[in-house]
């Protein structure tokens, strides 16, 4: 006697919450000053600014990892220069970041329709 089991197909639900990327925003704000920073100095400025805005979540070490990842993303996109262990924002950093935000918002609006 053969038994077959039927299971309902797995429903894939996707929940995507688009929240502002405060870490990248603050990195761009600090690096737009055209000064050169080592990562620890840069992180301390970003962390202090986010604390003032009450936008720190997940603990300092997690924020350090996220900041480093976001910083490397800026370097790979050619918006920030890395020389040795120092980082410096390049010309057009703020404009490119604003354009990326506008494109992301436009894509989110188009996806809702």
The average pLDDT value, as a whole number, equals 86
Measured on Cα atoms, how large is the radius of gyration? 20 Å
Record field, number of beta strands: 3
Order of helices and strands: HEHHEEH
> What is the oligomer described by this structure?
single chain
Q: State the end-to-end distance.
A: 51 Å
Beta-strand proportion: 5-15%
Proportion of residues in helical segments: 40-55%
Lateral arrangement of strands in the main beta sheet: 1-3-2
- The secondary structure category is mainly alpha
Overall shape: it is: extended
Continuous helix count: 4
Q: Which residues sit in consecutive blocks of at least 5 with pLDDT less than 50?
A: none
Largest sheet: 3 strands, antiparallel
Provide structural commentary.
Helices cover 54% and strands 10% of the residues. Strands 1-3-2 form a 3-stranded antiparallel sheet. The chain starts with 21 loop residues before the first helix and ends with a helix. The chain has 113 residues and is mainly α. Helix 1 (22-31) crosses helix 2 (39-52) and helix 2 crosses helix 3 (60-76). Strand 2 and strand 3 form a beta hairpin.
